[in-house]
Amino acid sequence: MDRVDVAIVGAGPVGAALAALLVPAGLSVRVLEARAAPSRDARTLALSQASRDCLGQAGGWPGAGVTAITDIHVSQKGGPGRTLITAADQGLAALGYTVAYASLEEALGRRLAQLGAAVSWGAACAEIDLDVEGAKLRLAGGGALEARLLVLADGGANARRIPGLAYAEKDYGQVAVTGPVRTDRPHRGRAYERFTPEGPVALLPVDDRYALVWTATPAKAERLLAMDEGAFLAGLQAHFGDRAGRFVASGPLAAFPLRLRTINTTVALRTVIAGNAAQAMHPIAGQGLNIGLRDAAALAAILSAEPGVDPGSPAVLEAYRASRRRDAGRGVAFTDFLVGAFMDARRLPTWGRGAALTMLDLLPPARRWLAGRMIHGAPTP
Ligand SMILES: Cc1cc2nc3c(=O)[nH]c(=O)nc-3n(C[C@H](O)[C@H](O)[C@H](O)COP(=O)(O)OP(=O)(O)OC[C@H]3O[C@@H](n4cnc5c(N)ncnc54)[C@H](O)[C@@H]3O)c2cc1C
């Protein structure tokens, strides 16, 4: 049976970035991916400067197809208050960047090939056997692998196989309808986040257009997906208003059901859980992958700090758990709070939301604090 230092299950952005950080640190790494080939997922991701730094360090930052977000306009439908968070306020060139999931996948895949750690495609992990010495994995198509450390970066597919690991789930009863849209005005790097009683609508600047994330009930999402372009654009205009201009074109749409899922602990015997496998959240605040990349960066920092350390030792696992608990927990709580506060009038009435947005607008330090948290996460205690 092949034996490596670290087996990473899942070649999504978190698993691939982690591998690209670990190989240069001298660890032998295998990345197992269930898909037969890269996903070419059409979703657009908003990534923070910290994520850009992490991917840059991993050598997986896409050279092209990246758009800078210079400000974010936040407002609510049917109520007062709005705020503008700007990069200039933060003393930064950009608040973040938009990148296609598929471009990220490609850039990281190229980097792993350069490092001689190419992804094993069509290698679904089907069985996990853990003991104090290491993790033994059986693959669906035959074959096996042994590792001193197992990292589950598989979006949540395998954790339930491990004794002691369990998920808590909350279904928001919402679906994100996503796709490209164009307006009759250039975006000039501005992103929009508009809270509505149905759920948030976001427009992210991408090249010369926007990526739309429209959250709706499952029934409404089905109707949106079935509409012709004219009806869809008219519906979007009525829902979003005219702050970004007139909607003139839309592209193919996709739908993602939205739920919050968190794991009870991010470590188990010889195992680390990272990225969406540890916390999968509503895309309202664009935090999911940003937090997942901080998981990858934290584990890589721990393993790189002590060359030769047993990567699955209890000390490493505990250091990882402790370093991620606060940041990931707060990211999840913040995102869940936003979903509740801006959708549920019993938790925060419309005037209260308006006041909060106005306060944010009037208080630059509060805006800086919020933007800082969204860019870097909560500080490690
Ligand atoms: C509509 C939408 C918009 C979003 N926008 C943002 C945003 O703006 N900013 C942001 O930070 N985040 C955003 N997110 C969240 C972001 O997409 C996720 O946090 C991110 O994709 C998680 O990466 P990951 O590598 O942990 O998991 P995934 O991307 O889910 O990858 C997991 C991989 O594991 C593989 N796998 C599964 N089972 C097995 C198995 N048994 N064996 C081997 N491989 C397996 C899968 O095939 C997959 O390739 C958004 C999400 C959605 C749905």
SSE string, helix = H, strand = E? EHEEHEEEHEHEEEEEEEHHEEEEEHHHH
User: How far apart are the termini?
Assistant: 41 Å
CATH superfamily of the domain at 2-41 and 51-67 and 99-168 and 261-346: FAD/NAD(P)-binding domain
Report the β-strand fraction as a percent range.
Answer: 25-35%
Describe the model.
With 381 residues, the protein is of the alpha+beta class. The chain is built from ten helices and 19 strands. The radius of gyration is 21 Å and the shape is elongated. Flavin-adenine dinucleotide binds next to helix 1, strand 3, strand 11 and helix 7.
Q: What keyword list fits this structure?
A:
381 residues; alpha+beta; FAD/NAD(P)-binding domain; 9-stranded mixed beta sheet; 7-stranded mixed beta sheet; 10 helices; 30% strand; binds flavin-adenine dinucleotide
List the helices and strands and how they pair.
Blueprint: E1 2-9, H1 13-22, E2 29-32, E3 44-48, H2 49-58, E4 67-69, E5 71-76, E6 82-86, H3 87-90, E7 96-100, H4 101-114, E8 125-131, E9 134-139, E10 144-152, E11 167-183, E12 190-195, E13 201-206, E14 209-216, H5 218-226, H6 229-240, E15 247-250, E16 254-263, E17 267-268, E18 271-273, E19 279-280, H7 288-305, H8 314-343, H9 350-362, H10 364-376
Parallel strand pairs: 1-2, 1-10, 5-12, 10-18
Antiparallel strand pairs: 3-7, 4-7, 5-6, 8-9, 9-10, 11-14, 11-15, 11-16, 12-13, 13-14, 16-19, 17-18
Helix pairs in contact: 1-2, 1-4, 1-7, 2-7, 7-8
